[in-house]
Write a structure and sequence with these properties.
This protein has helices spanning 16-26, 63-72, 139-147, 158-171, 181-191, 194-213, 228-234, 254-278, 288-301, 315-322; strands at 6-10, 29-31, 37-42, 46-51, 55-60, 114-121, 130-138, 174-179, 217-221, 242-246. By secondary structure, the protein is α+β, with helices and mostly antiparallel strands. A five-stranded antiparallel β-sheet has the order 1-5-4-3-2, with helices on one face. It is globular, with a radius of gyration of 20 Å.
Length: 324
């Protein structure tokens, strides 16, 4: 079924800052909003309008894809359905926070004691790689890491992340897929969709862990409403493997929290290495000081160096290259 050319999504105005950052990251240009609207932006075949009423209108051929990209960047609540357009994946009974097993997955005896969790870092950062990590935790290793203070990496100090990452890497079956900026730019140019790129990386990390350690319950921190993206990226699962996807999984699943710690640690390490190579500090994020760093990078090394340090689809990079 062809996706509609116009999608209306209920919007929480408390997320307006995230929405502006996401539009910036995706390369959308702000334009004067119409009456009774807070903002309007136009980009690749899509126009986005946020109305005072709390409705976000997406118009254009890529409206459905852009909606998922905004979700992936945290501008929209995960799983929020679009008005007049059925969501491809519905949450389990009890609301979007209730995990639901993928249809057709078989749970083997004993597999429930092991969980493989995956999470990513770097998708909203101009500089540095996109990193996806998958970690397998048994009940015992999960309990031990929680005693050491395991939590979502966003809630941990850098020193704690470094300590926990070393512990996880030493004692747990894991896989880290770190996509360098140059590789990221090539993949993004081919896929033209951030969620497909994320699904590919999650699937690659998870399957490598399963291949080395056997069946398990698999939990993915859901980044898109369409759960088919990850299922298709994974391909046929080993017998006895169950797949679950739900938002904010790192807050409740030790394996996903462990994956977030590994992904954050690798991202920070890679960004430091890129900074050393560039001879200047390349900051995380996508704020104004990041654009200043990009301009300095071009001044020192030329515009041809940017794809080796930065994700080129960000609007700030377009401004640097355009001289605006």
């Amino acid at each position: 079924m062809t996706a509609p050319a116009s999608i209306t999504v209920p919007f929480d105005h408390r997320r307006i800052g995230r929405l502006r950052q996401a539009l910036e990251a995706l390369g959308y240009q702000s334009v004067p909003p119409p009456p009774h609207a807070r903002l309007q932006a136009a980009g690749d075949r899509v126009r986005i309008t946020l109305y005072d009423s709390g409705k976000l209108l997406l118009q254009g051929k890529r409206a459905a894809e852009v909606r998922e990209e905004l979700r992936a960047l945290g501008a929209l609540a995960p799983g929020m359905p679009a008005a007049g357009h059925a969501s491809a994946a519905r949450p389990a009974a009890g609301g979007p926070s209730a995990p639901a097993a993928t249809a057709g997955a078989n749970t083997a005896a004993g597999a429930a004691t092991a969980t493989v969790g995956s999470d990513e870092c770097g998708k909203g950062d101009v500089f540095g790689p996109l990193v996806v990590a998958a970690v397998r935790l048994e009940a015992e290793s999960a309990a031990r890491l929680q005693e050491l203070g395991l939590a979502d990496s966003k809630r941990l100090a850098p020193a704690r992340i470094e300590t926990l990452a070393a512990e996880i890497a030493r004692d747990c079956v894991h896989e880290v897929v770190a996509i360098t900026p140059a590789r990221y730019n090539a993949l993004y140019a081919r896929m033209r969709n951030l969620n497909r790129l994320l699904a590919w990386a999650h699937g690659r990390a998870i399957m490598r862990v399963l291949e080395r350690s056997g069946p398990a319950r698999v939990v993915v921190d859901r980044f898109a409403a369409d759960e088919r993206l990850v299922r298709e990226a994974l391909g046929p699962l080993p017998a006895g493997t169950a797949l679950e996807q739900y938002p904010r999984a790192e807050e409740r699943e030790p394996a996903v929290a462990a994956a977030s710690v590994l992904a954050r640690a690798r991202f920070v390490e890679a960004l430091e290495q890129l900074s050393q190579r560039a001879g200047l500090v390349l900051p995380p994020g996508a704020a104004a000081h990041v654009e200043q760093a990009a301009r300095e990078l071009v001044r020192r090394h030329g515009a041809q160096a940017l794809p080796h340090y930065a994700k080129m689809h960000f609007r700030s990079i377009a401004r640097v290259l355009g001289g605006g």
